[in-house]
Amino acid sequence: MKVTFLNSSYLPSKGGVENSLYFLSRESIKVGNKTIIIAGGKNDEMYVDSDGVEVVRYKSPSTFIKRSCSLFKILKSIDSDVFISRSFYTTVIALLAQKKVIYVLPAIFKNQNSPRNISNNTLTYKFIYKFNCFLEMIAIKKSDKVFVFSESMARQVKELGVNNELYLCHPGVDISVYNPASLTDKTMLRAKYDLPNDKKLLLGLGRMVQIKGFHHAIESMQYLDDSFHLVLVGDGTYKKELLSLIENLNLGGRVTFFNFTNTPQEFYKLADIFMMTSLYEPFGQVILEAVACGLKVVSFSNCLESIETATEEIFIGSENLSFKAAELTALSLSNTINEAAKKLDCDCTDEYNSFIKKFSWKQLFNDLCNTN
Predict the structure, then answer these.
(1) 372, part of any domain
(2) Is residue 362 part of a domain?
(3) What contacts 365, CB < 8 A, 6 or more positions away?
(4) Count of other CB atoms within 10 angstroms of residue 93
(5) In this predicted structure, what is the pLDDT of residue 372?
(6) Which domain, by its residues, includes 312?
(7) Domain-located, residue 57
């Protein structure tokens, strides 16, 4: 069988979607499939990686029309038994190329990137936003099959007025990469990044944009004692505001910032508690990675009006791994962090093993390719 994966970006760009392409393509290779990844890149190129996956790049830094024509030509030249797309853009171009597409939604663009959530009210952004919302609707309505990672995502799709049948699936986590660190390894990693070894480390990792809610994590430090230290990892348009907030609250000695990393597993392994402070998160690959590395997860309750995440859905049956703030305030978040910290030495082996078994890249690949 020949399987082709599509997305607007791929490694070395790092994110949940890019990682999913990597791990799904490895599962495809394992069962003997001819496997191709088509994604945007700096230039048009083609190469075969060390595992035998053929990677085809179309030049992404160009005008929309040139980029689309380049991708269209590539797609027209490829015959494949299965086309699996993770981007509404690549899905639409594949549909124009008359391919049957399985679309695995990464998020609901209309909700995640609304001008309110992005804090961008310029006319240019509003135009681009509406155009992308239009493309997203085409991708969802016209794809052969549409997969979502949570009931929350399914509900959001229905709220768009789409009545297509939706297939529920789960992403995976690679436990050969993401696994708990020994006390020795944790100590060595903290020394490597010059982080205190006598503190409980809180970790926030992801794009530094307002919707990720990292400002709540920073503000909560005002109510936590000196035994806690916050580590933030990532880059983004909101980073300057976060740095100013740290300075204004005089938290410079209690919060450490790191730029984007290609080794997120090292930060999970040196931390104790993962801060899932997103206001909108259709699933949250980082949650799986954090739990796989043995961290407790602190988030806001999905019952709050302004919170739209799948966190509570993910942790059904694993309540000792997740702690939820009942209010969207720094004080409530700090109380929840203290609650999680009291359970750091709790033996949750059974819950941990049960949680990890639910999330497999092999199972996801089989779900995508074997749906009748």
Answers:
(1) no
(2) no
(3) 24, 27, 28
(4) 27
(5) 44
(6) 183-357
(7) yes
User: Tokens 């859905």 sit at which residue?
Assistant: 313
Q: Tell me the C-alpha distance between 13 and 303, whole Å.
A: 33
Take residue 161 and report the two structure tokens written for it.
């007025």
Give the chain's domain count.
Answer: 2
Looking up tokens 């394992």, which residue turns up? 30
Cα three-residue angle 20-168-214, rounded to 5 degrees: 55
- Is the pTM for the entire model greater than 0.70? yes
Cis before 171? omega within 30: no
Closest CA to 280 of 87, 90, 116, 89: 116
Q: What is the mean pLDDT of residues 269-276?
A: 98
Question: Residue 147 and residue 152: Cα distance in Å, rounded?
Answer: 12
Both tokens assigned to 330: 């720094």
pLDDT higher than 60, residue 101: yes
pLDDT value at 354 more than 80? yes
The single residue listed with the structure tokens 């505001």 is 241
Is 233 in contact with 289 (CB distance < 8 Å)?
A: no
Residue 31 in any domain: the answer is yes
Higher pLDDT, residue 317 or 127: 127
Last residue of a domain, which of 114, 137, 169? 169
Q: Which residues, 6+ apart, have CB-to-CB distance to 235 below 8 Å?
A: 207, 208, 259, 260
State the burial class of residue 314 (Cβ atoms within 10 Å of its Cβ: 0-12, 13-18, 19+): buried
- Count how many residues are written for the chain: 372
Write the pLDDT tens digit of every residue in 63-79. Answer: 999 999 999 999 999 99
Question: Distance of CA 16 to CAs 357, 362, 368, Å?
Answer: 19, 16, 17
* 310/284 Cα distance (integer angstroms): 8
Average pLDDT over residues 50-70: 95
Domain end (from 169, 194, 215)? 169
Query: What is the Cα 94 distance to its own chain's centre?
Result: 24
Give per-residue pLDDT as tens, 157-172: 999 998 889 999 999 9
Is the same domain home to 113 and 210?
A: no
Contact 330, 307 (CB under 8 A): no
